């Protein structure tokens, strides 16, 4: 929910609506493109990729909570720390916030992975909370949105990369695939999209030219939303580990579950370290988003076309630096981002996807047996 604030700051409403439209359309499209059988076959075939996607998402949530919690300065704690003297001691409130935020998120994520009701309850709270906070904020932030600080042309150069990520990544979400495999009809997905849009609009209502109006209620809402997302993906990883064990190998279910828990802990640690007061920042946030714009969509599409690991890694060796300078900029230079650089890997990806592949996987993909197989 922080990306809309960046887009509003850089490109005004045009940046927000580009993000909102492709986000809602990409999520809703899952319900129209997958049947029960296709979804189950896809999850079985690409289980490793989908697990990596969930782990990256958990790590991203941990990073954001750590970054935000470490950035909050409580006046009383800050004054007490400064009274004690010393540069190291004056940073104590940041580390206290970081410790409390990351520990709370980790506890909720690990606890939520073991049950059914906790994450559903939290999800309802997040959805209703966004509506309640939107009502409380009104549209105060909307009146502050201008044309944006960045040239409008940059947005249209970055738009294909933004759209690719939000249109492809929902198909890699284990929770989305589980709903698709349950037989939920298109109406349920339309309702989901309609309920998702208010949360995006609430993020816009919290906008200010300096960033977000980081009031206490907004910080709490961010924390609940990140906790809900982490809980859902931790739960899906545990369920995936249990289902991957053969029915005749029931004794392996517990070790598989413990293994998924260990992976969740590692993902939480990676995110917490990346979001610490020493490392956290907007550039790291954008690099996490690069996983969803550059790496996961490309990996899914190239696997679909039958490319092997070496070919995918070769593409990423070209794509990652281009996305880095396209969205963040060249290190050590004041020129800022070079938005057109993102078009180079996208053009390469299009060529690789359209190129004929002379192997069984490519022939199966061309036959259209399974989307993103």
Describe this structure as you would to a colleague.
- The chain is mainly α and 373 residues long.
- The protein has one domain (3-366).
- It contains 16 helices and 2 strands.
- It has helices at 3-33, 36-45, 47-71, 75-84, 87-90, 92-112, 117-137, 152-168, 174-181, 186-205, 216-244, 253-274, 282-304, 309-327, 343-354, 360-366, and strands at residues 207-208, 211-212.
- A two-stranded antiparallel sheet has the order 1-2.
- Helix 1 runs parallel beside helix 8, helix 3 (47-71) runs parallel beside helix 12 (253-274) and helix 6 runs antiparallel to helix 12 (253-274).
- The two termini are 30 Å apart.
- The relative contact order is 0.17.
């Amino acid at each position: 929910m922080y990306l809309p604030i960046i887009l509003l700051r850089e490109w005004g409403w045009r940046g927000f609506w580009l993000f909102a439209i492709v986000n809602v359309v990409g999520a809703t499209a899952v319900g129209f493109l997958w049947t029960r059988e296709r979804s189950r076959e896809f999850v079985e075939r690409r289980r490793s990729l989908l697990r990596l996607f969930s782990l990256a998402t958990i790590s991203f949530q941990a990073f954001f909570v750590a970054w935000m919690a470490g950035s909050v300065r409580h006046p009383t704690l800050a004054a007490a720390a400064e009274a004690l003297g010393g540069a190291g001691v004056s940073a104590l409130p940041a580390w206290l916030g970081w410790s409390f935020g990351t520990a709370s998120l980790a506890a909720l994520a690990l606890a939520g992975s073991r049950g059914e009701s906790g994450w559903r309850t939290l999800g309802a709270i997040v959805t209703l909370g966004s509506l309640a906070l939107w009502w409380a904020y009104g549209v105060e932030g909307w009146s502050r949105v201008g044309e944006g600080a960045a040239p409008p042309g940059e947005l249209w150069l970055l738009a294909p990369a933004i759209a690719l990520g939000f249109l492809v990544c929902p198909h890699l979400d284990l929770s989305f695939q589980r709903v698709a495999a349950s037989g939920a009809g298109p109406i349920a997905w339309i309702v989901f999209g309609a309920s998702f849009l208010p949360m995006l609009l609430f993020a816009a209502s919290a906008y200010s030219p300096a960033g977000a109006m980081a009031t206490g209620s907004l910080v709490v809402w961010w924390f609940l939303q990140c906790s809900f997302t982490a809980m859902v993906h931790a739960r899906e990883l545990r369920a995936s580990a249990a289902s991957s064990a053969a029915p005749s190998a029931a004794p392996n279910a517990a070790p598989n579950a413990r293994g998924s828990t260990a992976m969740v802990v590692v993902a939480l640690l990676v995110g917490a370290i990346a979001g610490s007061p020493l490392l956290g920042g907007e550039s790291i946030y954008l690099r996490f988003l690069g996983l969803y714009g550059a790496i996961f969509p490309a990996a899914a599409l190239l696997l679909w076309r039958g490319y092997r690991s070496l070919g995918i890694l070769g593409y990423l060796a070209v794509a990652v630096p281009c996305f880095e300078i396209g969205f963040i900029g060249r290190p050590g230079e004041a020129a800022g981002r070079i938005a057109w650089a993102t078009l180079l890997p996208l053009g390469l990806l299009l060529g690789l996807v359209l190129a004929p592949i002379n192997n069984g996987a490519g022939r199966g993909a061309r036959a259209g047996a399974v989307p993103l197989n």
